[in-house]
Amino acid sequence: MTTQKPTTHTLVPRQLVVYRRERSAIWQCRFNVDGRWQRTSTGERDLETAKAKAHDILVEANVRKKLNTAPITRRFKDIANAVVRKLKDEMKTGKAKPIYKDYITAIDTYLIPVLGKYAVNNITYEALEELDRRRTKRMGKAPTRSTQLTHNAALKLIFDEAVYKGFMVELNRPKLIAKGKASERRIEFGLDETRALKSNFDEWIEAGKADSKDLRKLLKDYVMVLLDTGARPGKELLDLRWTQIEIKKYPSVKKTGVIEPPNEYNDTGEEITILNLNRTAVINIQSGKTGSRLAIGRLPTVKALEDIAQRNYGKALSKLLKEQCKDYIFTYKEFVSDRQQKSNRKAKLARPTSFSKLFDTYLKEHNLQTDPVSNKKRVLYSLRHTYATLALTNDNVPIHTLAKQMGTSTTMIEKHYSHLDSVKAVHQLRGDESRQLIDMELDKEVKKRYSYKQPTKKKETG
User: Fold this and answer.
1) How far apart are CA 275 and CA 253, in angstroms?
2) Cα 256 to Cα 210: distance, rounded to the nearest angstrom
3) What are the Cα distances from residue 170, in Å, to 123, 162, 167, 398, 422?
4) Residue 121 DSSP code
């Protein structure tokens, strides 16, 4: 039989115990309700007073159980912090969902500051309305429905944890509603604007200061890849490593219709054909919003990767990939002045935290930031919408294929791009082949079948 410590006293066998932790003068209480042990503080320093308080706690807990409420509760803040620790632990394993970072931000920035003072089983609708008011004030605008859904998902995790630990019952869980307005679709770049966006980069890079040129060059490569793949700006590309890239070739032969002149080897001449290697980057995205996926980058992406490899390592892309380099791709060399070079300081590779401000500067300086029709501001995410718009209207990419490439659902594609009108879809609606079929001369039998026949007049009856 085990002997209890002098700091532990059993008041009711298998139901009620008071104990004192090391380096603490306050007596704690451990009690069993419905086969589940709970812990709380008696708040008392005197043992006899603590015992009496513990009996009261057990009685109150059993009464609460009969009333279908949690036998003991905790502050919202304590449960929320426990959930944050769990999310962070899962993120360290590398298997967490990308959305976990947004949950942590929502909990730390909005939920705990507003709801932290409440008991977790006493979050009323008045408290949730207070959350709405203070969240809107902090954001400076009403949160979108998407933002509210993210915050509600984080709240659900906290309530789930509270129910699991017995600090809350389902009856006390408030119903969470996302009543914000739907997020607006970000405006894309038009075809002429996209051409201007690409063609003005080199001159802008050369006009920059010496300590900013490498970062500007990296921004150009970043934009080219976003335009070419439809990836989400941020982690999807900035977290990429060279080991996540594979370059493949899909050769194709294109006939030009041009006949070369006859020569000594060929009396009649031959049609000139062009061999296209179709170098393609297969990108293994691991930090996608909806999980990992494979995305395809065409020649613009391959060239951007080649430029980065040459600038940062002085190596060909193929060689760098063969060496299984594990560095992050989107890095640039820190500027080293002449004086620093004399002291043998070497340039290190640095990762940009964000390209948003630099891209804003580029757009402002080239009159591309504001859409002249809607007066909406363009941002990096506009490149993703530009890619999708061009893929649907010019490349005739099936919605299912596009959804796979962009890491989203066909429903979201249809929702965000149902605005495409006949002007943007001119390449699809031109219908060259169908027009040719319609204009073909009718077969004689068909022509006869549908030829005009003068109607016969009915005889009048007197």
Assistant:
1) 5
2) 45
3) 12, 10, 10, 44, 52
4) G
Query: Starting at the edge strand that comes first in sequence, how are the strands of the sheet with 8-12 ordered?
Result: 8-12, 16-20, 27-33, 36-44
DSSP string, 52-81: HHHHHHHHHHHHHHHTTS-SS--BHHHHHH
Query: Quick check: 312 and 346 in contact, CB under 8 A?
Result: no
Whose CA is closest to 102, among 137, 174, 150? 150
Extract the tokens encoding 148: 């509210």
Alpha-carbon distance of 91 to 397, in angstroms, equals 35
Question: Of 39, 11, 37, 42, which is closest to residue 24 (Cα–Cα)?
Answer: 42
Number of H helices, E strands in the chain: 20, 11
Q: pLDDT digits over 397-447, tens only?
A: 889 999 999 999 888 888 777 766 555 555 555 555 555 655 666 667 756
285: nearest Cα among 229, 206, 348, 220: 229
Of the chain, the percentage scoring pLDDT greater than 90 comes to: 47
Spatial CB neighbours of 420, under 8 Å, sequence gap ≥ 6: 389, 392, 393
Phi, psi of 245 (to 5 degrees): -115, 135
Q: Which amino acid is at 13?
A: P
Distance CA 51, CA 57 (A): 10
User: What does the block give as tokens for 344?
Assistant: 């043998």
Under a CB-based contact definition with an 8 Å cutoff, are residues 79 and 158 in contact? yes
| Euclidean distance between CA atoms 228 and 302, whole angstroms | 10
Topology of the domain comprising 191-255+272-417 = hpI Integrase; Chain A (1.10.443)
Tell me what percent of the chain is helix, strand and coil, each rounded to the nearest 5: 45, 15, 40
Closest by CA position to 405, among listed 228, 277, 259, 273: 228
Q: What are phi and psi of 224, to 5 degrees?
A: -60, -40
85-124, pLDDT tens digit by residue? 999 998 888 777 778 889 999 999 999 999 998 888 888 8
Q: Which helix (H) or strand (E) holds 228?
A: helix 213-229
- Higher pLDDT pick, 455 / 368: 368
Look-up of token digits 């990308």: 98
Domain ranges of the chain: 8-66, 78-172, 191-255+272-417
